[in-house]
Amino acid sequence: MKLIEKYFGTELSDRQREQFTMLYDLYGEWNARINVISRKDFESLYLKHILHSLAIARVCRFDAGARICDVGCGGGFPTIPLAIFFPEARFTAVDSIGKKIKVVRAVCESVGLTNVEACNCRAEQLPGRFDYIVCRAVTDLKNIVSWTWDKIDAGRRGTLSNGIFCLKGGDLTGELAAAGKPCTVYDIADFFDEEFFETKKVIHLCR
Predict the structure, then answer these.
(1) I want to staple 19 with a disulfide (CB 3.0 to 4.6 A). Which of 105, 111, 163, 165 is the partner?
(2) Chain mean position to CA 41
(3) Given this model, what pLDDT does residue 41 score?
(4) Prior bond to 78 cis, omega within 30?
(5) CA-CA distance, 52 to 67, in Å (whole number)?
(6) 3-state SS, residue 178
């Protein structure tokens, strides 16, 4: 939690602090039953999962009412940290694995998040329209584009244009070219100084 305070402390309400603090015990309980986070990484929950998710908030601030869909949300990252940080935005968390959606729903209920809908389906089957798609290293950008591009409305419901925000790492030259969309790459190391983020990036594909 000290990491969240370090970078976002001046922007958090007492309620948001309480919600972020609750995540450690909640994910600890669920991870003992359903392995949604690598057990060797669990002690780095705030660094590798929560703060990493919030790198998107350093790149774009979502407007109230903005519709955000997390494709391949796993146990709830980046959905849940972003939903806590942007309580007036609306989130849809999607994963094809039912037990992961069960965890997302339970964690949201426990921390009192009412701005998240969790759906057990494939991204291609998802109904509805969105302003932004977010994801974290689920698959190649080309696949994300093919699954979701026609579900994104053009416009701007935040500080950057509608589109896709993807958390990725390493050399993305070929992957970005294959995606075939205008993009901007943000180095997370410009926002957070922990060594873990040295090769991590936020990719924005602009709709």
Answers:
(1) 111
(2) 18
(3) 84
(4) yes
(5) 21
(6) helix
Residue type, 25: D
Task: Give the per-residue pLDDT at 121.
Answer: 93
**Cα distance between residue 37 and residue 58, in whole Å:** 24
Residue 183: name the closest of 201, 205, 164, 168 by CA.
205
Q: What is the mean pLDDT of each run of 10 residues along the chain (207 residues)?
A: 96 98 96 87 94 98 98 95 98 95 97 97 88 91 94 97 96 92 96 97 96
Torsion angle, alpha carbons of 49, 94, 19, 202, to 10: 40
Distance CA 200, CA 192 (A): 10
**Sign of torsion over alpha carbons 11, 15, 18, 22:** negative
14 burial level (CB within 10 Å; 0-12, 13-18, 19+): exposed
CA 134 and chain centroid, separation: 6
Angle, helices 98-111/14-33, rounded to nearest 10 degrees? 150
- Give the pairing type, strands 183-187 and 200-206: antiparallel
pLDDT value at position 139? 86
Instruction: Quote the pLDDT of residue 35.
Output: 85
In sequence order, what DSSP letters do the residues of 137-189 get, joined into one string?
S-S-HHHHHHHHGGGBPSS-SBSS-SEEEEEEES--HHHHHHH-S-EEEEEGG
How high is the pLDDT of residue 57?
98
